[in-house]
Write a structure and sequence with these properties.
The protein contains three helices and three strands; from the N terminus they run H-H-E-E-E-H. The protein has about 80 residues and is α+β, with helices and mostly antiparallel strands. The protein has a three-stranded antiparallel sheet.
């Protein structure tokens, strides 16, 4: 496999993982979301996960971060006036 193909496969795999984690958080029943304080959001191509009730990296992380997604997040933040 050529180096560019490796990068494309890696990026595709990361997107699948990101989507799966966001789906998992979204599909959690309300009592589970409340008990583990689950929260997730997609900002552009990034996915942010948080769980105050499960203090491990897999449940508290940002995925899909690169220079393009950081620029998208910055633009969204500026437009939302958070």
């Amino acid at each position: 496999m050529l180096p560019q193909e490796n990068i494309e496969v890696s990026l595709a795999a990361e997107k699948v993982e990101l989507d799966a984690w966001l789906d998992l958080f979204e599909a959690a029943p309300a009592p589970v979301r409340a008990a583990f304080e689950l929260a997730s959001i997609r900002i552009g191509a990034m996915g942010l996960l948080a769980s105050r009730g499960i203090p491990i990296n897999e449940f508290n992380r940002v995925m899909g971060v690169n220079t393009t997604t950081l620029s998208e997040a910055d633009s969204e933040f500026e437009s939302s006036r958070l």
